[in-house]
User: Which sequence fits this backbone?
């Protein structure tokens, strides 16, 4: 009997209290005719209450509603709601952007499958509303480490600077894909970025020079264009005439973005600021379980995080030191392992992570302690 009580987590003092009338009354277990301590009855009732909370589906308003009956392995909701505020969001290798605010949904390609953080190719991020800033350093990493890595390439060593209304680009241009053979001809471009009717970002340089010599007039006179002398046609980006066309949904590494609408694209010293909106209702999320001014909040749906499937996901990620969160999606395992995870009574998980951590590969540790200045 003592072993049974000890194993159940019920103390002798609690049993004595119950028996003396100070606590909840005991009752007879009909299955084995043994008395059940009142305290244990309270614990069981509390567990049933919490299990009801854990299993209750709270889908952010504006996101797709449940499509299937829930069971212990499937909440029946096909998307994981994503709310982010004041976060540096990195896809690995310095490629990413600053998220001022974001309301989105992470949608697995396979209906009924959980979101798999280990497979960014298996889901999309559907953006409903928010504001992100692609800083000059972000643009450098995007083009030098992703967009222009395929061979043959006519552009290399891209360096970006932004000011009000203009993007300044210094790049090595390999004319006609092979002249000069190494490094490229130093070329400077400057101009605005506009949004096309189909939602692409269109960079139209109004100034192009090489070695201090203006080129746009020469190209016009000879009937040539930037696309002719430095051809570029890759997924998400291409040169047409003297314009660089960028598809924001395919410009970045996976997961692919699905954007309802880009309301505005503004260039300033901070970078390229994109504001998103949608004709659909703006998703409304529950209040985050702990206070933070920099966080990622995942609500509803099912997510595979490490080797565990979170059913009816409620997960908050924040910086362990109270700084602005820098989240590295491709190294989320190493970043999470360097932090701590706390479980709350309502079933929410609070994941507190550092911005500096060892990725576990041959590269140097990822040190991302908000070295970039806050965007305006």
Assistant:
């Amino acid at each position: 009997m003592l072993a049974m009580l000890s194993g159940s987590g019920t103390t002798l003092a609690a049993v004595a209290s119950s028996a003396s009338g100070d606590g909840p009354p005991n009752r007879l277990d009909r299955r084995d005719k043994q008395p059940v301590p009142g305290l244990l009855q309270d614990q069981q009732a509390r567990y049933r209450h919490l299990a009801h909370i854990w299993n209750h589906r709270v889908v952010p308003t504006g996101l797709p509603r449940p499509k299937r009956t829930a069971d212990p392995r499937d909440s029946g909701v096909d998307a994981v709601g994503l709310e982010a505020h004041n976060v540096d969001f990195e896809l690995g290798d310095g490629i990413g952007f600053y998220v001022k605010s974001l309301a989105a949904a992470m949608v697995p390609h396979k209906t009924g499958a959980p979101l798999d953080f280990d497979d960014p190719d298996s889901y999309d991020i559907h953006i409903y509303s928010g504001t992100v800033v692609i800083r000059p350093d972000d643009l450098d990493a995007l083009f030098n480490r992703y967009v222009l890595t395929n061979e043959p390439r006519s552009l290399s060593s891209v360096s970006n600077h932004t000011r009000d209304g203009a993007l300044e680009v210094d790049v090595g241009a390999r004319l006609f894909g092979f002249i000069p053979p190494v490094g490229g001809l130093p070329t400077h471009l400057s101009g605005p970025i506009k949004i096309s009717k189909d939602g692409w970002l269109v960079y139209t340089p109004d100034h192009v020079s090489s070695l201090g010599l203006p080129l746009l007039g020469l190209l016009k006179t000879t009937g040539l264009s930037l696309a002719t002398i430095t051809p570029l046609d890759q997924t998400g980006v291409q040169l047409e005439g003297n314009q660089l066309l960028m598809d924001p949904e395919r410009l970045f590494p996976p997961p692919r973005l699905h954007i309802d609408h880009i309301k505005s694209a503004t260039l300033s010293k901070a970078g390229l600021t994109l504001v998103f909106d949608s004709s659909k209702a703006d998703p409304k999320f529950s209040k985050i379980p702990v206070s933070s001014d920099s966080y990622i909040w995942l609500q509803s749906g099912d997510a595979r995080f490490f080797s565990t499937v979170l059913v009816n996901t409620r997960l908050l990620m924040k910086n362990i030191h109270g700084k602005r969160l820098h989240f590295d999606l491709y190294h989320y395992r190493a970043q999470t392992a360097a932090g701590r995870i706390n479980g709350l009574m309502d079933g929410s998980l609070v994941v507190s992570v550092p911005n500096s951590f060892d990725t576990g590969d041959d590269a140097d540790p990822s040190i991302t302690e908000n070295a970039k200045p806050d965007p305006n």
Remarks:
- Residues 138-252 form one domain.
- The first helix runs from residue 2 to 8.
- The CA atoms of residues 198 and 261 lie 9 Å apart.
- Residues 1-21, 362-371 have pLDDT under 50 and may be disordered.
